[in-house]
Design a protein that fits this description.
Blueprint (H helix, E strand, L loop, with lengths): L3 E6 L4 H5 L11 H14 L9 E4 L3 H10 L1 H9 L5 E2 L18 H6 L29 H14 L4 E6 L1 H9 L12 E6 L6 E7 L14
Parallel strand pairs: 1-4, 2-3, 2-4
Antiparallel strand pairs: 1-5, 5-6
């Protein structure tokens, strides 16, 4: 079995525009919503037809990117009894306000007019918004090891992951990565044989007006 991971960075969010990391749990801009819809057009006839699972960060911007970018995939998987997995292990690395998830889960369900009300947040850990313990930026390497192990040990062969620039770079390259990763860009990875190490297979890059920095400056 050759496993494929479709690693998706969220579309442009408010903090990307002026590198303003003080915006709490920044949501998508109108351009980001447009990029997400373009992502849907780009992928609706390809891996949205074949992917078997979606795993997403609990912050607002990747979840909104997912809703707008992968609607047919979400609908199909829900019909198959495989709802989105929201995992706090995929939250962004840093502890700046834009990278801290909304708390409590009931507030996430009420955010942005209630667009996330049908998602399941029961898997979030009690301290998911504290940036302490496993969510401390100092522990990001351990967090990424857990994510890679979890994804590699799942039975699904094609998994869509929606998250953030810095955590995705850390996930695939480790500390200090400067790998370019644009807003709403998808990179396809697989696992090296016999290990949890990731190897890039291809790049799905929707045309967008900006790559947009992450809170880590890249």
């Amino acid at each position: 079995m050759v496993k494929k991971l479709y690693l998706t960075r969220h579309a442009q969010a408010e903090h990307n525009v002026a590198s303003d990391w003080s915006i709490p749990d920044a949501k998508l801009t109108p351009l980001g919503q447009k990029q997400s819809r373009e992502l849907n057009e780009l992928t609706k006839d390809t891996f949205q037809r074949t992917a078997q699972l979606i795993v997403c960060s609990p912050l607002l911007r990747p979840m909104e990117t997912m809703l707008l970018g992968y609607p047919s995939l979400m609908k199909r998987l829900e019909g198959e009894g495989k709802p989105v997995i929201i995992t706090d292990l995929l939250q962004e690395v840093n502890s700046t306000p834009c990278d801290v998830p909304t708390y409590p889960p009931s507030a996430i369900k009420e955010a942005l007019g209630g667009i996330f009300k049908d998602l399941d947040f029961s898997g979030l850990g009690e301290g998911y918004a504290t940036k302490k313990g496993i969510w401390d930026p100092a522990n990001v390497e351990e967090r990424c090891r857990k994510v890679r192990k979890m994804l590699n040990e799942r039975e699904e062969e094609e998994i869509v992951v929606v998250a953030h620039g810095d955590i995705l770079r850390q996930l695939v390259d480790g500390d200090g990565s400067r790998r370019p990763w644009g807003n709403a860009e998808v990179k396809i990875f697989t696992f090296s044989e016999g290990s949890h190490d990731l190897v890039e297979v291809a790049d799905v890059d929707p045309e967008s007006e900006t790559a947009g920095p992450t809170s880590g400056g890249m």
